[in-house]
Amino acid sequence: MTTVANSQNKKVKNDSSTWQFLCSVKLAVIIIIILAVACILGTLILQMRPPEDYVNRYGEGLAKFFSAVQLTDIFHSYWFSFLLVLLCVNLGCCTVKRWRNTVLQIGFLVTHISIIMILIGCVIDMMLGEKGGVNVYEGKSVDYYLNRADYRKIPLDFKVYCDDFIIERHPPNYKLLTFVKNKELEKFIPPKVGNKIKIPGSNYAVTVKDFYPDAEYRAEPINTSKEPNNPGIYVQMLESNHVTAEGWLLAKDRNWYNDPKRDLKIEYLWADNDDAYEKLAKAAGEIAKPTLDVVIEGKNISRSAPVEVGKSISIDGTEYVVEIKQLALDYAERDAPLNEQSSDNPAVRVEINGPQGKETRWTFSKYPDYWDKAHQAKYKDVKLTCYVPDNFSQTANSLRIVQNKDGKQTLSYLSKGKLVSITDWEVEKRYDIEDTGLQMRILKYFPSHSIKKEVVESTGSHEGHNHGPGEHIGTPAIFVEIEGPRGTVADWMLANNPPKWYPDKNFALLYEQAGMAIKDYKSILRVVEDGKTVMTKIIEVNDPLKYKGYVFYQSSYDPEGERYTGLQVTRNPGLIVVYTGFILLCIGVVFIFYVKPFLRRKLKKGQKVEEYYSEDEIAAEHIE
Amino acid sequence: MDFTLNITYYVYIAAIVAYIVREVWRAKTLRWIAFGVFTGGFVLNTILVITRWFEANHAPMSDKYESFVFFAFTIAGVYLIMELVTIFIARVHESRLGIVGALQSLLAVWMIHSALNTDSTIKELPPALQSNWLVVHVINYFVSYSALSISFTAAIIYLIYRAIYRGRAQEIVMSGSDSQLRKDVTFDKLAYISVTIGFPFLTIGLITGSIWAKGAWGTYWGWDPKETWSLISWLVYLAYLHLPMILPKTKIKKTLAPIILSIVLLIAFPVVLFTFMGMHKLPTASDSDHIYAE
Ligand code: HEM
């Protein structure tokens, strides 16, 4: 702007008070302070919201005032831009005025010029730069993106394919939450084996003593008394010295086991008296058959018939014909052969033929009105119920392990309803089962058992459900000891189970999964121009793809199906200017505050301070 | 972990006491004792940072707990380096730096106390934070904040001395007589020196933050509240650095200038702390992408 050669000109400039003011530090400080205040306002007042938001929050009057002086979008307002321009002018003028060719000036010049560069770079980006985003489905491509400000489609002269999109997750994280009820105090403590941790503000202390990375509950019967109140036996089935099946049979609970391969049912039966014993051990007995009852409401008609698949029952006095289509012992396994189903939820499928055509229904023996509630029935007056006896089975052969109070314990083998053999049994001994090639052994007998739930370390490498093969994620468990006013208690806690309460009901622990944090998301992008692949790159957050001045950032993804990748697209032609400014600014400040003081000390020797520094500098930098 | 954290806390408290004792009975041995106690706390703090680094498998400055511990670490580190410089380079053994030491250990105590009350479970880094720029950015900021905190404590002490002694030259930190210092260092000058040490780090922190944001989000500046407030802190210190050039030209009395500058520092550091810890209090915070410290 000024040429020092023309001293006349320089004098004029120096005398002009506007010029003086434009170069002055006073203006600089004023601008800096106003900028700071503007920035503060820009974070205190909501920015770039729809007008009604302001009216709701600040009231009609203030809202009007805010939009009038552009306080609703400070950082893009005219006055803010004007301030930045003024700042540039101020910097430029003072730099020009102060220009002296000395080493010590380098920092000052570099910092001031770098700030001008940064601001100019930003302006270039604002005027010529582009910014937007686009979602690319896996396997698809785009040749455009949507402008950020107005969602305009902006064409690209190349195509970007997303060949794959990958989300990597961290293994799940577990945390231990402590809760003191009367203080409403929640605190996380590390769920790691270690020292005692006192819970602040309470007199509880928690120690994690042991840890299983993968644990499970195992229900194990234990014996509680010699009285046969709740008998159970542990049975093993063997075939040429190989255990083919083993487990507990509980007389008053799950007391049978089906071997569908051999059409064999094994039952454990307890007889309270001799009569009952005789029946259970010897009488093949008539096993009750399942029956179906049909009631026509309002007509006082009812029919009962055995469940035989394929049989049709015509209901006299009505036009209905009920055909029995299927019997299932366990509705959930209804497609499996009948003798492979356990009789958990027996049901019968029927077809009702009537004046309005066919209607298909399932009736459940345990939930008689379930179907009617859950479905719209055609023939509302037809009520169906079925009865399937608990011990009903389709198996041809059965092995009955029968015991009574007096110590009688026998093993009967029945085939097709006929008693084939009967023997006494003892614990630990093996017995051949009539022409099946099988052997049976009773390993334990508990006259009165109760089930103890126990946490044990999982051993088998069973695959879970929600993850790929080979990456089995177990359920961890910790053994915690709680000290408190009622002494010390200790127990295992399995992750994601209900909280564990201390006996005084005032302190609880919760051990739970903290979610599987996303480790990274990546897209394999391919740029195709004129039909040719010119570039491929796996982009991830912090590592974008750059092509022809465009930069593609990994910024989001389809939160539901992970089917597409969300890209942010930018073009920043001013970036090089901004970054040069950044580098210069760093060099400049380091020079001024770290290099210059040492240089100054060196240069100063033998020279007068005043020859080197202006008054301002002396004042500013406390030079004496 | 919790155990070492507790010990660190008490050692830092002991450092406050030691520095106060040293300030009252100004003996050379006491200076070393105070220095030693604070150094002890610093060493424990270093262990905390390093073990956390190994346990978490990322630079330990990515959540609230980690940044509290790390900030305490840099506060102690920067102050101790400064004290070493006064002893071995400026060769001042007789100084009033003890008051600053006491206040700096107080600040470290505050940070460790905050850490004690923060959830310290290790969290996995979200993808955006997995960047080396983040590490450079945060280290620069905490070193800068620590130096700037010294300017804050020095400014407080300066103002208190000025209030007590009313202009008599009693507010000297270090005296030049038997040292390499050519002139006495007063508390306002100490404050200025600390700002000149901290400001370059603040600038580099701001710039590396911007470069990191560009890599992660595609924008180097987005007027996000956290960004804006770090700019505000930078602007306030910038104003402080330019102010001395205009004060002599105004009608303000020469003796008042250091008071005005100290008051600016008194405002500036709370701005820095607000940028560090107060962002969630802003009405605009919900719009923010990276208020990670909450
Ligand atoms: C990192 C940022 C900055 C640093 C480190 C810095 C540093 C300096 C230094 C060391 C001086 C004294 C130069 C000398 O007398 O040799 C100075 C003067 C000055 N600075 Fe800055 N400055 C910065 C930013 C700014 C900004 C943003 C503005 C404008 C708003 C500004 C305006 C001025 C002005 C007007 C002078 C006075 C020049 C004169 O007396 O003619 N500075 N600055």
From TrEMBL, chain A:
Entry superkingdom: Bacteria
Transmembrane feature ranges: 21-46, 78-96, 108-128, 576-595
ResB-like domain location: 25-103, 105-172, 505-558, 562-596
A GO biological process held by the record: cytochrome complex assembly
Hydrolase in keyword set: no
Name of the molecule in the record: Cytochrome c biogenesis protein Ccs1
Entry annotated with the keyword Transmembrane helix: yes
A cellular component term, taken from the record's GO annotations: membrane
Organism: Candidatus Scalindua arabica
Membrane topology reported for the UniProt record: Multi-pass membrane protein
Subcellular location(s) per record: Membrane
InterPro entries in alphabetical order: Cyt_c_bgen_Ccs1/CcsB/ResB, ResB-like_domain
From TrEMBL, chain B:
GO cellular component, one term: plasma membrane
Chief site of localization: membrane
Pfam families in UniProt: Cytochrom_C_asm (PF01578)
Domain Cytochrome c assembly protein: 62-272
GO biological process: cytochrome complex assembly
Function: Required for the export of heme to the periplasm for the biogenesis of c-type cytochromes.
Organism (species): Candidatus Scalindua arabica
InterPro entries: Cyt_c_assembly, Cyt_c_biogenesis_CcmC, Cyt_c_biogenesis_CcsA, Cyt_c_biogenesis_CcsA/CcmC
Family: Belongs to the CcmC/CycZ/HelC family.
Membrane topology: Multi-pass membrane protein
Protein name in the entry: Heme exporter protein C
Keywords, alphabetical: Cytochrome c-type biogenesis, Membrane, Thylakoid, Transmembrane, Transmembrane helix
GO MF assignments: heme binding; heme transmembrane transporter activity
TM region positions: 6-25, 32-54, 69-90, 97-116, 136-161, 190-213, 228-247, 259-279
Alphabetical list of NCBIfam families matching this protein: cytochr_II_ccsB
Subcellular location: Membrane
